[in-house]
């Protein structure tokens, strides 16, 4: 698909990812299969470049494939790593099995449900709570993409004294890794627990924030991501995201 000004051209797969249509990997797969239309023209060549204002649509098989993508919600216990396995520790995804599924959901694990199932938004080994696994690149981008604005809520048990000034700094004013943190919402729940609501997720961010104001974290639990609440999901159990649920 030729265009007059090469400076304005973007890879079609990159543009599809930026628009939240799918991940770049999925875009390449759809292009190869002939499932992508640009301004009504079927595109099958990988690496095709287009202008940013083109109309992109997906063929029915791609839409059907997206509708069948699996998302799983887990209440991760302490002691499990959320991402890549570490020596001596189990990855949380090993808890996704028939015997640990929660509730009376009609759907059960099927062949293919675990394929390309990736964790979205890590929880460190000493933390617990809401953990999301998905096959859907659109959801992953929404939750942890560079421009994500989705809130993540945590209940954090702490030890130490926190002044009003330092509470204000937790809300806005701290730096990590030489970068000023985005504004957060931090307030007291009771005498030893704080509520953190963040829109970013640096490695061990809450623990490091607390260290900067003289607090020690003794417990950390994620209870909400966007509109999705951990709710009554028991520790160590998982369930499918229902089709009518939004995050």
Number of β-strand runs: 18
Shape: globular
Q: Treating each run of at least 4 consecutive H or I residues as one helix, how many helices?
A: 6
Indicate the structural class.
Answer: alpha+beta
Largest sheet: 9 strands, mixed
> Which architecture of the largest domain per CATH?
2-Layer Sandwich
Strand fraction: 25-35%
Instruction: Tell me the domain tally.
Output: 3
C-alpha-based Rg, rounded: 21 Å
Q: Which CATH top level class of the largest domain fits? A: Alpha Beta
Oligomer: single chain
The CATH topology of the largest domain is Alpha-Beta Plaits
- Low-confidence sequence ranges: none
Q: Roughly what is the average pLDDT, rounded to an integer? A: 92
H/E series: EHHEEEEHEEEEEHEHEEEEHEEE
Please bin the fraction of helical residues: 10-25%
User: CA-to-CA gap between the ends?
Assistant: 36 Å
List the helices and strands and how they pair.
Layout (H helix, E strand, L loop, with lengths): L9 E2 H7 L5 H10 L2 E3 L2 E3 L5 E2 L5 E3 L1 H8 L3 E6 L3 E2 L8 E2 L26 E3 L7 E7 L2 H8 L7 E8 L4 H8 L3 E2 L2 E2 L4 E6 L2 E6 L6 H8 L3 E10 L2 E2 L8 E3 L7
Parallel strand pairs: 7-8, 10-16
Antiparallel strand pairs: 1-4, 2-3, 2-5, 6-10, 6-18, 9-10, 11-15, 11-16, 12-13, 14-15, 16-17
Helix pairs in contact: 1-2
Can you tell me about this structure?
The protein has 247 residues and is α+β, with helices and mostly antiparallel strands. It has three domains: 6-67, RNA-binding S4 domain (Structural Genomics Hypothetical 15.5 Kd Protein In mrcA-pckA Intergenic Region, Chain A), CATH 3.10.290; 71-146 and 228-240, Pseudouridine synthase I, catalytic domain, N-terminal subdomain (Alpha-Beta Plaits); 152-225, Pseudouridine synthase (2-Layer Sandwich). It contains six helices and 18 strands. It has helices spanning 12-18, 24-33, 60-67, 137-144, 164-171, 205-212, and strands spanning 10-11, 36-38, 41-43, 49-50, 56-58, 71-76, 80-81, 90-91, 118-120, 128-134, 152-159, 175-176, 179-180, 185-190, 193-198, 216-225, 228-229, 238-240. Strands 6, 9, 10, 11, 14, 15, 16, 17 and 18 form a nine-stranded mixed sheet that branches. Strands 3-2-5 form a three-stranded antiparallel sheet. A two-stranded antiparallel sheet has the order 1-4. The chain is globular, with a radius of gyration of 21 Å. The mean pLDDT is 92.
